[in-house]
Amino acid sequence: MLDPETGEETAHKDVGDVWSSPVIVDGVLYVGTMGGKLTAFDPATLAEKWDASFSVSSALLTDPTPVNGSVLVGGIGQELYAVDAETGDEQWSVSGSNWFWGRPVVEDGTVYATNLDGSVIAIDLATGDRLWKFATETPVRAGAVVAGGFVIAVDDQGHVYGIDPETGQLAWNGPTEIDKSVLADPYLLADGSVMIISKGGDVFTVDPADGRLTTIRIEG
Amino acid sequence: MTAATPKAGRRGPPVSLIIVMTAFMAIVIFMLLGRDPWDELFINPLINALVLLNIPVGGQFGLAIILFTVILRLVTIPFTIRQLESTRAMQNIQPQVQEIQKKYKDPKRRQEEMVKIWRENGINPLGCFMPLLIQFGVFFALYRALAHVVGGTPESLVSVSQRLYQFPILQDQIPLNQHFLWMDMGQADTTFVLPLLVGISTYLQQRMTITPNASPQMQQQQQMMTWLLPMMLVFITLNLPSGVGVYWVVSNIFSLIASYYVYGRRILSWRQLLPLPPPEPEAPVGPRKDRQSAASASARTEPDIEAEATEVEFDHEPDIPAQREARTNGKRRGKRKKRR
């Protein structure tokens, strides 16, 4: 940990390789590691909060997502886990056919998770029941976002999908095509549109209502 | 006549044909299924094999590459031995080949005579290419596989996720520990050590297969190749993932061991390993008549040339029974002359 004023190191903890972004929510720091451990720390002292880390045999890739007393995390083991935010115990898990890498998103008690098998999965946060599965054309590395009443997902070949969160069906006439590889998570902008950054640095916005694409030109 | 290995390459065509036909069938099937045959047949199995071999070597991916190379070379050892024997047999018939080239000006007739000699000596010229084909095929497939497995980019990992078979034991190995000794298996070795090792080992391996009795023109070509190929590989390795270089070095070491097995102690000769000039021919010690005859090459008959060629080969092929017999006969002839 670094002091935000001076940049000096205030605490240090070796946890192994970490590919995901650590997250601080309600004064707790959650770190998922490539060694398959999810650990909760006190951000000030880096003292562990749980008796033992939540541990699996394969690497954890998704950013830990704390919501409603659970922390969602998934990875190479093809499982998405809900872990009790207080104790670190597993609450439920859902299997995919490939890796979970995109950041999961939660809206109205439903988890929307993308999988590298080329799918978006809706899961009941409370029970872990799978509600629906939407198949994309190619694998999905980027996480989904919820915007304009739709679940927006983009696959690694740049097909953008607007999915009805109730039915799991494509809401638009067809996927909007960027025709560029997209691996980064999309972002929800203040005006309600969704920003997508493709490989190579091109930036696009998508209108969630109809999937209309706008290319953002960055000068300089 | 020089003794060639009668079995060399004899079983080559059917086995090679079966392999080629099987590969062709598999390619057609994958194409019909709309899958990339190159990926399905080579790259993906290779990626999974490398990840699997990562387990017994304690997660050291560099060691997994070495283990993979050793296993591959052991599996293909019949091809390697056949290639070396074929090369040796080709070396042994060089005097006859040269004689045919001198004797027959008509290309068709020359070719017929060549085929006849190959058949008599059990040589299949194509038999030399199968191990090389396998080695180069693996070289390029490994290059492609490493670009995915240790590419170090999110894109390469997404690619791995699509190529790795759905077994937890394989999935748990990702990400691979790509640091090995001073190298990063996914990056080119900028210390120049590995490219130099590739160059030196390839050079030594090339020197093993030099044909001692070849025509001056052929020898010149061989000399050029012994330098050209290693130099090319040094520059190529400078731009390839280190894992490919490690494969090449280990493979070359294996080839050197196989050459020792087939050629015997000959490969330990400095003259064979280094670009030293050929040894000065010993002064003839026979009667004056013999010396004159040796000096007049134009007057030589075919048996004379064959006998001379056999004598040259004695320096390099001490283990061939027919040569041993020929040498014994030569000694007997000398004794007879002395008695006279």
Essential attributes:
heterodimer, A: 220 residues, mainly beta, four-stranded antiparallel beta sheet, 39% strand, B: mainly alpha, two-stranded antiparallel ribbon, disordered N terminus
Structure description:
The complex is a heterodimer of chains A (220) and B (340). With 220 residues, chain A is mainly beta. Helix content of chain A is 0%, strand content 39%. Chain A is built from no helices and 20 strands. Chain A has strands at residues 23-25, 28-32, 37-41, 54-55, 65-67, 70-74, 79-84, 90-95, 105-107, 110-115, 119-124, 130-135, 145-147, 150-154, 159-163, 176-177, 187-188, 194-197, 203-206, 213-216. Chain A has a 4-stranded antiparallel beta sheet, with no helix packed on it. In chain A, strand 1 (23-25) and strand 2 (28-32) form a beta hairpin. Chain A is globular, with a radius of gyration of 18 Å. The mean pLDDT of chain A is 93. Chain B has a two-stranded antiparallel sheet. With 340 residues, chain B is mainly α. Chain B contains 16 helices and 2 strands. In chain B, a hairpin with a 2-residue loop joins strand 1 (179-180) and strand 2 (183-184). The model of chain B is unreliable at 1-10 and 284-340 (pLDDT under 50). The chains are: A mainly beta (220), B mainly alpha (340). The interface between A and B is medium-sized, with 19 and 11 residues.
SS field, number of helical segments of chain A = 0
Helix content of chain A: under 10%
Shape of chain B: globular
String of helices and strands of chain B? HHHHHHHHHEEHHHHHHH
Low-confidence stretches of chain A: none
Mean pLDDT of chain B: 74
- Kindly estimate the percentage of residues of chain A that lie in beta strands according to DSSP: 35-45%
- Which spans of chain B of ≥5 residues are poorly predicted at pLDDT below 50? 1-10, 284-340
Distance between the termini of chain A: 34 Å
Helix content of chain B: 55-70%
Q: Which secondary-structure class do the elements of chain A indicate?
A: mainly beta
Radius of gyration of chain A: 18 Å
